[in-house]
Amino acid sequence: MRAHNVGVLISTATARSVGADNDSQIDRESGSDLAEALGRLGLVPVSLTTDDALDLGLRRARLRACLLAAHGLAGGLGRIQALLELRKIPFVGPSAQVTGLAYDKLRARQILAYHSLPVPTTVVLGGAQPPSRHAIGLLGWPCVLKPRRGSHAAGVRLLTDADAVADASQAAGGSDELLLERAVLGREVQVVLLHGKVLGAMEVVREADDLAQIRAMTCPPGLTRSQLKGIGNLAEHATRALGLVRGAARVDILVHPRHNEVILEAEPCPDLRRAGVVARVARAAGLRYEALVQELLRGLVDVPERVAPTRSVRRAPAPVVEAASPAALQ
């Protein structure tokens, strides 16, 4: 059987956004890891950068399907997916429209709230109708300032008083790209889903003075079985509400010991590196990296039987606590 060409689309650091350089580094690592895994699966990886020559490259490559190593604005806006849809090239992950809506935290939270799912109280700073001081005051203190479209907690800051919010609002000007939300205390759990079904979860602990930096990760989280089932159901409801039922997705949830859980965001283009949360959670669930890639391509590309990986079975894995490293998710 002739090996199929599978595209690996890797973004470049051209996006002018907070954390763009970090996203580009993650994309390069993801692209390299995905290409290596495709080769081991007996497929032919074709690496393409998502620059102005992408359309020409797609037409020349004769691709059977594509994997996206594009995170942050590069993948989250849905423009790459829209081009693939135009060229009728199948790809792993949600459609362009679904991706763009899910990556927009404000729109995503509106959709989740419509489906009666818990989200933080949020206001938009700047824009045509900036919030009044009274509306901001209703959020209470402290508040969290974050980009409306962003990933890996880049640009996220904790604001402790009205003066800090006023300064942030003035800096935002007429832009509607900053959100202010009520700070919710709790443990952050990132739930990984594969084709709309929970694969597992990772608890992350962030540095207090830099929320973009992760100090430790624990998989599976140190929660009760009923708590894990509850946040898993919440994550599945969230992905269904947003249409994130193709490929891998990640739902970030805050778990409080006495209050209800809160959905922070749903990531339509999660990091696919070997060192990323998706791969680590898959490994804890008994799914090796090559088997994860094969599962992502299910229904799009047939893997030769002689190289198809098998899924190992693990029962009740003990929690694994990993300190953050340069290769860890940021």
Looking at this protein, list some descriptive labels.
single chain, 330 residues, alpha+beta, Dna Ligase, domain 1, 3 domains, 6-stranded antiparallel sheet, 13 strands, 33% helix
Describe this structure in words.
With 330 residues, the protein is α+β, with helices and mostly antiparallel strands. It has three domains: 5-103, Rossmann fold; 121-182, Dna Ligase, domain 1; 187-323, ATP-grasp fold, B domain (D-amino Acid Aminotransferase, Chain A, domain 1). Helix content is 33%, strand content 25%. The chain contains eleven helices and 13 strands. It has helices at 20-40, 54-61, 73-76, 79-86, 96-103, 105-114, 133-137, 162-172, 225-242, 277-284, 289-296; strands at residues 5-10, 44-49, 65-69, 122-125, 143-147, 157-159, 178-182, 187-194, 197-207, 210-219, 248-255, 262-267, 320-323. The strands form three sheets. Strands 12-11-8-9-10-13 form a six-stranded antiparallel sheet. It has a four-stranded antiparallel sheet with strand order 4-7-5-6, covered by helices on one side. α1 crosses α11 (289-296) and α4 runs antiparallel to α5 (96-103). The longest helix has 21 residues, at 20-40. It is globular and about 65 Å long. The model has no long low-confidence stretch (mean pLDDT 86).
Count the E strands. 13
Which structural category fits the helices and strands?
A: alpha+beta
| The CATH superfamily title of the largest domain | ATP-grasp fold, B domain
Widest beta sheet: strand line-up: 12-11-8-9-10-13
Average of the residue pLDDT scores? 86
Oligomer: single chain
- In CATH, the architecture of the largest domain is 2-Layer Sandwich
- Major sheet details: 6 strands, antiparallel
The Cα radius of gyration reads 20 Å
Helix count from the secondary structure assignment: 11
Intertermini distance: 40 Å
Q: Helical residue percent?
A: 25-40%
Give the CA-based shape. globular
Organism: Nannocystis exedens
Pfam families: Dala_Dala_lig_C
Protein name: D-ala D-ala ligase C-terminus
Keywords: ATP-binding, Cell wall biogenesis/degradation, Ligase, Nucleotide-binding
